[in-house]
Design goal:
The protein has 5 helices and no strands. By secondary structure, the protein is mainly α. The termini are far apart.
């Protein structure tokens, strides 16, 4: 996932959370102290959020800023793989 895709994901996630919580763009703007036009342009992909903006929006939506980011799947460690292999072999 490149940077553009990540940014698109974050913006879509903000919009999805806002809608699920039943919060209008105007209400989000009031809660976050950001203009309604900024929120609208953000959701249209015309604006990019700063870290401070993400923190304000997360606080206004009562979620963790982490909720806006895609989950990163870490590859298993060698020991975990070995353990799983041994468990599978024990089943045979």
């Amino acid at each position: 996932m490149d940077i553009g895709d990540q940014l698109h994901y974050i913006i879509e996630k903000i919009k999805i959370i806002r809608i699920r919580k039943g919060v209008s763009q105007m209400e989000l703007s009031l809660r976050s102290n950001l203009s309604q036009s900024f929120i609208a342009n953000l959701e249209k992909g015309k604006k990019q959020p700063s870290v401070l903006t993400l923190l304000k929006i997360a606080d206004a939506l009562e979620v963790s800023p982490q909720d806006f980011f895609p989950e990163i799947i870490k590859p298993p460690k060698k020991e975990q793989i070995k353990e799983k292999i041994h468990k599978l072999l024990d089943l045979l």
